[in-house]
Write a structure and sequence with these properties.
Elements: E1 5-11, E2 18-23, H1 26-34, H2 40-44, E3 49-56, H3 59-71, H4 74-84, H5 91-95, H6 99-102
Antiparallel strand pairs: 1-2, 1-3
Length: about 110
């Protein structure tokens, strides 16, 4: 049985630069981005805010969706984010406020 996946968007500010990614482990991947250990592009442009996340039951569905969203115009991506997160709040801080979540590599 395949694991599910996530399509997510990292940003550097409200309606700023965005990075669309896909992962099977959202907590670990966002933590990597926030620590500068994820994508070089995310680190170089300080895209550390998790502004959008979309869960899929199958990783293949998530990969297909990521490829589609990456092709979208900026305004369409803005609309996607703002449908659920109009203020571009950092979802990481809302969803994972505990110290344990901030350091997923530590057990």
């Amino acid at each position: 049985m395949e694991r599910g996946g996530w399509v997510y968007i990292m940003a550097n500010r409200y309606r700023g630069g965005m990075y669309v990614g896909v992962t099977s482990d959202l907590i670990r991947r966002v933590w990597q981005h926030r620590e500068g250990k994820g994508s070089i592009h995310v680190a170089d442009f300080n895209k550390k805010l998790l502004v959008y996340a979309e869960r899929h039951e199958e990783i293949e569905q998530a990969i297909a969706r990521e490829k589609l969203v990456k092709k979208w115009r900026r305004e369409w991506k803005f609309a996607l984010v703002e449908a659920d997160n109009p203020d571009w709040l950092d979802l990481w801080d809302q969803w994972y406020p505990s110290e344990q979540a901030l350091h997923p590599d530590q057990d």
